Amino acid sequence: MSSPTLEKHSAALDAAENTASENITVTFRIRRFNPEVSEEATWQDFQLELDPKERVLDGLHKIKWDQDGTLTFRRSCAHGICGSDAMRINGKNRLACKTLIKDINPEKPITVEAIKGLTVLKDLVVDMEPFFQAYRDVMPFLVTKGNEPTRERRQSAEDRERFDDTTKCILCAACTSSCPVFWNDGQYFGPAAIVNAHRFIFDSRDEAGEQRLEILNDKDGVWRCRTTFNCTDACPRGIEVTKAIQEVKRALITRRF
Ligand code: SF4
Ligand code: FES
What are the pLDDT digits (tens) for 164-180? Predict the structure, then answer.
């Protein structure tokens, strides 16, 4: 005769089994590039077992750890915070750590490739330097003049709200590398730099808004934007990137911010 405690445990185990997903076999089709081996990039297929609730990043780890240690990609936090694992997954820019297998049709091969518009160094790793240079160029820090205040710089809730959306940027480059203008010549500052300029231009405590606007009034600045909304669609933080760019354009015309 089984005890009530044992029955309870077995019922709990049954319930856990019912909610657990079955592993499925998926194919990752990865664009590989190693300049030490060939000047051409090639697609390579890997088959692996994954729980559909796992993420593309988990699949990449499994391939690297169990099948091919040379597979090269960036990642750090694995939780959508550091911005280091933006890649093109099934043709769309996404964070590998935020993309669940079940959400991207695992019945077909899942394509994974480096983001576009930046030089590929190896496999899924691109040279981020031009991206970060554009970021540095817009002075992404608070600029104030005069004497240091003796107490904190105060700001109303309404004034803080003006740039709340653009504070969420994690510099993943998903927006900039989804922009056709950026693909064309790579000189355009790109959406991410403008988002980070917006964050300070509309900060009531900052005193370098005019300077940032002049930087973005350049031939490679905001006027290159063709409002395709690719950037807004690509942003894993849900930032209204195109709207921020429009607000910077308007501030350039009206000089009100
Ligand atoms: S605006 Fe969004 S997509 Fe662009 S770098 Fe920031 S977080 Fe990434
Ligand atoms: S690994 Fe940090 S955002 Fe994906």
Answer: 999 999 999 999 999 99
Domain that holds residue 92: 22-126
Helix (H, G, I), strand (E, B) or coil at 169: coil
Three-state secondary structure call for residue 118: coil
What average pLDDT score do residues 91-103 get? 98
- 119 and 134 share a domain? no
Q: How far, in Å, from the CA of 175 to the mean position of ligand 2?
A: 15
Q: 205 C-alpha to center of ligand 1: Å?
A: 23
Same domain, yes or no: 133 and 122: no
* CA 82 to mean position of chain CA atoms: 9
Ligand 1 pocket, residue 30 CB under 6 Å: no
Task: Give the residue, by CA position, lying nearest to ligand 1 atom 6.
Answer: 169
Whole-angstrom distance, CA of residue 226 vs CA of residue 154: 37
Using the atom order of ligand 1, give the atom closest to the CA of residue 178: 3
